[in-house]
Amino acid sequence: VPFKSARDLSLWLWSTHNKVNERLMKEEKDMGTGDPSFPKAIWPPKALCPSCYRSSSRTSDGALQVDWNEDEVFPFLVNYYGKTLVSSYKETYMESLQGRTQVGAALADDASSSHAARVPIGAALGVAAASCTFGALACFWRTQQKNRKYSYRLHSLKKI
């Protein structure tokens, strides 16, 4: 079992999201292809969850390096997105693996936040995988376009 708890899954998805955003921020900066309508950012920002940050600093290339307090990040994620996702994970995935009707000390199912959405765990993982695949394909496509552009310019200069 890759994830032993809803906490493990949630922190993995959050961490992967931030890693992808870090990579895209660098690529968009280098290539000048960023979309100001959808800026890439490390999440959550310190303004939303100051206790999630143990410390932060900038690297020589300007990237934000954060020492995260995962014991604060997980409760923040649950509070921000709602307890429904955690409950759904426990109800479907964990029960199917362990054959139980109840797993551990479950969070209250009736608790939710304005950001909550009930999503089957398989669907959430499918969307995450598709998003990562699309990002990789978009990066590949941009690289090919850039190579064609420079190849065309180089070919044009040789004729002169």
TrEMBL record:
EC number(s) recorded for this UniProt protein: 1.8.3.2
Domain ERV/ALR sulfhydryl oxidase, chain residue ranges per copy: 1-43
GO MF term set: flavin-dependent sulfhydryl oxidase activity; protein disulfide isomerase activity
InterPro entries on file: ERV/ALR_sulphydryl_oxid_sf, ERV/ALR_sulphydryl_oxidase, Sulfhydryl_oxidase
Catalytic activity: 2 R'C(R)SH + O2 = R'C(R)S-S(R)CR' + H2O2
Gene Ontology cellular component annotations, sorted alphabetically: extracellular space; Golgi membrane
Pfam families (UniProt xref): Evr1_Alr (PF04777)
Keyword match Ion transport: no
SUPFAM superfamilies: FAD-dependent thiol oxidase
Cofactor names: FAD
Transmembrane segments annotated in the record for this chain: 121-141
Leading EC class: oxidoreductase
GO BP field: protein folding
Record's keyword terms, sorted: Disulfide bond, FAD, Flavoprotein, Membrane, Oxidoreductase, Signal, Transmembrane, Transmembrane helix
Signal peptide: none
Protein name per UniProt: Sulfhydryl oxidase
Species per Swiss-Prot/TrEMBL record: Aegilops tauschii subsp. strangulata (Goatgrass)
